[in-house]
């Protein structure tokens, strides 16, 4: 028995949980800092040995290599900094296209998996089980090396009408170029959209107050057709289509989607859609069947039951895993390095790193970009999630 | 005395039993469903016969050179000719029995773990986990009486399996520690663990592999040279441990508070509470989740192609660019896909079965 009158012995400080926690934390922090310092020292020494100057000055040096796809103007004399921006834009481009397409395909497949139609259900299952069990990089390679590259050259392109051409240099398609009537057209579209917005609010208010309906969809369609149509009549066409033409050995005019982008988008879409489909299925199945029965007993037809009762509740379950699928897709877009699509990783962590040797700076920049993308997608999704989350009494 | 004799039951209407009824209920229950069925049938008809023709009926199976392929269907001769390379990489052919033996030992050694009612399973599992890696390393790498085979000659499916196995074995303990750290009440530990986990989860594996291949040599003292495979393994383990940590955290959170309180009431300290009470229950809960992370890891091993290791995918990619076998890309990648698919699908089925079997308690 300890006598409370006695002063505590030195050893008892260690048996005080609070003191121990402090000690433990201090040791952990010191260990991490010391380890970091050790790595830093080694790195400094190694860099000196190799004569590499650390710092970010290299970003303003001239790059001196060509890039197959750039969304902003680029010449070989431009700086590494600009190369970085181009890589970032290309990563964002493929991520956004992939997310949109994968969401669409994923929702269709997820609903198909729950279809009362046996054949449709089985086909969706086969799709999902096949594609989610094959590594995405392998799928990218398959589309690129086995499908797109063996395509014929420009002269023997596969054509769809006289507008779309697919060959081993990519997909050529018509591009709109601005014409005289563009600005009035734009104004007309914006006007029509805002009119529809105002109208929709008024219609909803009236329905809530009086219960009377209004043919909103038809009116909206009419507005969307009439106003821009009027602008075209008065001010002329907004766009001229520039159609790709075979000249010599290649096509001119129109838009070109490079094969790397096609392969990457296809593979990411097909792969991620399989996962999204499973999330959608799980979300819909998570809704109690009583909800469907209640809706049916209120006299709602199946379509409205799905739209007004099931989907809003299922979305709450679907959104969190959907977010992580989007994040995965954005991160998987870095697999572009495998086929040389000029994204962040293959341009910056690949070519620029090799040319400059600034390993630490380049990798740090690349990683922080992905961290930033990850964090912003999850913040956006959290905001949305909060809006649709269940507000319980 | 009155006797009732029932008339025999009428058979059900012919439209409500048998194949016709099934067809009607499942495929043609309305005009929309009928339309869907027809569309699906059209899709099947569009895809299946050409695929079957290419892969089986018109395919070439016999022979050993390019000339043995007629060119109509798939040329499986290519896979046959290069099978050794796809499985073992550049591992010396006369020493390949060592790889086979390693795999056999893994199967034989791990088999008792799958027997449901084996006594002392945990002790056996621990012993296996301690002994087998050393044995496997000795067999694969050589030394101590065996001819050494440098890791640069490892390749093919064998390398894929090595990376996946070492990755999960290394990531598991680290991940458990990180998960415990993240749930810790000590703020400094918690912040360190959360930062570590979120950092690795926020970046793609490719950048991690790039980092470990170009930055690790800079971080280490000058005289230390570090094997390329080891660099990749370190990257994979760090990356994977963050994902394992999140799965384990899910399991820890599912354990009711009463368990902690009961352990505290028994006078158990932190490590004993965790080791004897919480983790045994939590780990059982997260086994399916861990299998799923392992599937993801298995698919991710294909990325080591980026830093120039010859795993299954890279071996096949190399083989398809061989001038003697040009134009075999489709066959090669389909074969790779099949191998990956068999592994991943098998594991996912196993995880689903486990999930059903382990779904006993804790559900509220």
TrEMBL record, chain A:
- Topology in the lipid bilayer: Multi-pass membrane protein
Where, by residue number, does the polypeptide cross the bilayer? 20-40, 84-112, 133-151, 182-202, 214-235, 255-277, 335-353, 359-384
Keywords, ordered alphabetically: Amino-acid transport, Cell membrane, Membrane, Transmembrane, Transmembrane helix, Transport
Can you name this protein? Amino acid ABC transporter permease
- Grouped into one coarse class, the protein's main location is membrane
Give the species this sequence originates from: Pseudomonas mangiferae
Task: List, alphabetically, the GO terms of the cellular component aspect.
Answer: ATP-binding cassette (ABC) transporter complex
Q: Which Pfam families match?
A: BPD_transp_1
Gene Ontology terms, MF aspect = transmembrane transporter activity
Domain called ABC transmembrane type-1: residue spans: 88-381
Query: Per its UniProt entry, which superkingdom is the organism in?
Result: Bacteria
Is the rRNA-binding keyword given for this protein? Answer: no
Family according to the record: Belongs to the binding-protein-dependent transport system permease family. HisMQ subfamily.
Q: Which SUPFAM superfamilies match?
A: MetI-like
| Gene3D superfamilies (alphabetical) | MetI-like (1.10.3720.10)
> NCBIfam families under this entry?
HEQRo_perm_3TM
GO BP field: amino acid transport
Which cellular compartments is it found in? Cell inner membrane; Cell membrane
List, alphabetically, the PANTHER family matched.
Answer: AMINO-ACID ABC TRANSPORTER PERMEASE PROTEIN YHDX-RELATED (PTHR30614:SF37), MEMBRANE COMPONENT OF AMINO ACID ABC TRANSPORTER (PTHR30614)
UniProtKB/TrEMBL annotation, chain B:
- Which InterPro entries does its entry note? AA_ABC_transptr_permease_3TM, ArtM/GltK/GlnP/TcyL/YhdX-like, MetI-like, MetI-like_sf
User: What protein family does this chain belong to?
Assistant: Belongs to the binding-protein-dependent transport system permease family. HisMQ subfamily.
Report a single Gene Ontology molecular function: transmembrane transporter activity
Q: List the transmembrane segments.
A: 21-48, 95-115, 122-144, 156-181, 202-220, 232-252, 290-313, 325-347
Which compartment or compartments is the protein found in? Cell inner membrane; Cell membrane
This protein's membrane topology, according to the annotation, is: Multi-pass membrane protein
Q: Say where the protein is mainly found.
A: membrane
SUPFAM superfamilies, per database record: MetI-like
The record's section on Pfam families has: BPD_transp_1
Q: Which UniProt keywords apply?
A: Amino-acid transport, Cell membrane, Membrane, Transmembrane, Transmembrane helix, Transport
The ABC transmembrane type-1 domain is annotated at 157-346
Look up the record and report any one GO term of the cellular component aspect: ATP-binding cassette (ABC) transporter complex
The alphabetized list of GO BP terms reads:
amino acid transport
Species, as recorded:
Pseudomonas mangiferae
Which parts of the chain are coiled coil? none
Q: What is this protein called?
A: Amino acid ABC transporter permease
